[in-house]
Amino acid sequence: MAPSSDFETFRATLQSSKQIIVVSGAGLSAASGIPTFRGAGGFWRTFDVMTLAVPEAFEENPSRVWQFYHMRREKARQALPNAAHMALATLVAIPERLAAIAPEATITHITQNVDGLNIRALQMIGADPSEALIYQMHGNVFDVICTVCDHKTANHDSPICASLEGTDLAESERQIPIEELPRCTECGGLLRPGVVWFGETPHDMDEIQEVVDEADLALIVGTSSTVYPAAGYANDVEHNGGKVAVFNLDRSRDDEYADFLFLGPCEKTLPHAFFGAEL
Question: Which residues are identified as catalytic?
Fold first, then answer.
């Protein structure tokens, strides 16, 4: 049976749900001007970007990898949360708003995005992100981790170090000496971006899987569902007897599990699905 695109039927399902998960990807931030991971612009188009997001790339050429992530930090810094971010933040952080559309539900947001816009959306409505049910399973570009002492902290400096200034606009790669790259304030060791690279284990896997296994409704938002384990969560919920609603600009592999399919910009479809209007 083809998935439904009827908003009223979806809202009825939403109202009866008790454990809702949201699994979001790059499409959630597209309207905020964040390029998809595989669509990084400028001089980075000359690289297979997938080869930059592995531990081996950082070990071989930390200068190159830090220039790439400096560019990503600056793009994220310039962006603002869009209506889809705000709608999700409202439901995650304001119980009264969630109760109005799903009276008995809790909602947990699992995001693959590292741009921090979901966190900024929570801050913009006055919520404490540490108290919200949100998992940044692939980390955050504004976190840094020491490669020597493992100290992890948030860092929003622009630039994070003097040698990276202007490299986000450069038309060619610079060769930055390793001693001029970001250093740990605790031990002076080389810092790395606080993101999960291919081949590394995403954050909070046990907690996330527990929430997924209990979910009776999964909202798949702005993701092509090609990167595991997140790509398997819709299947898990469907297998456990739950409902799946997909919000995407284009068709994706999760459509086969979808009870509901809403194609279009998620900054329009998602607020409409929740509230009957755009925020």
Answer: 138
